[in-house]
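Table S2 (continued). Query chain:
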Amino acid sequence: MKLEVTDMEQKYIIPNGATTIWYGQKNLNVFGKLHYLKIILKAKKEINEFYSKALKEKECYYGPFKGEFGHFLLHNLPFLSNLHKKGVKIHYCGMELHKGFLVDEKGNSIIHKYYPLRDFFAEVPSSSNETIPPADVQKDIEAFYLIAKKSGRAFLDIADKNMYWYVFRNWQLKEGRQYVYNIKKVYKTANENSCVIFPRKKGNAVTLNNGGPWDYMKIAKLVEPYFDKVYITGHPSMSAEIESDGKVEVCLSTDNRVVIEKCCNANLIISQHSGAVHIGCYTNTNVLLIFNGEPPILGLIDTLRFRKNLTQQPLHYAFNEQQILDHIKTLSLSK
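Corresponding output:
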């Protein structure tokens, strides 16, 4: 799929920074490239065989997913939804906290049998799907492996780093390998003029992916006059500590159903360059990506090319408080 970005976004991305299948071999010598080619061909064969068998037998095992929220929303949820849409019974090993997303437009689970992994993000940091979980969680993963391998059914082990990172994510970009259920039909409960803010933890760190830290209560108070409610939500372990005040309501939760409901009811989602920006793909909500610093934004080119497979809804950007306010005013005028 060809990546199309606006003239403005061209200034925000790092050219040739997309982690395509062939990105991983660009700095290797000739022997390294040959070895890499073998890895790629083996991974492609494994994925294609899994997919063909799953579609033929209408049952499969998939997992374990133990990684970052953005990876769940971009590379796992839409693929699982595609399998479900095609009538495949899915035995899935993954984070229990994501369960609220794994439903169809009637609220029915798309998972035939769930092998849940407890929430451990307060204990270890997440990393794509390479997170090293606590021992008890790893024990649950090993138990899933035994069941999956003994089943004789199609099984895709997405903990295989090279297969997952370089091949599987990119393999999905072909038309017909992802599907998005509009979960707004399930979780929208009210007609309210609201905004959702995801407050990443404060700190002195400045990263090329996320920019510098923000004062999220200041942002909330900045946008408060334009909304009936401003919800501060997200995972407690990954969020700044903020107290409710006036129309600003804090509803951090390890239950993603709370997060989904707030996003489904909202007119706008505000988030740094993190997994939260992709929630709008499933809830049909406008998204404002805020970056405290000067572009380019590391990883944005991947965000755009994978997101394009899920929605035609554009991302909007703000690099300072005035630009945040300007976007809110524009949004208010367009109602």
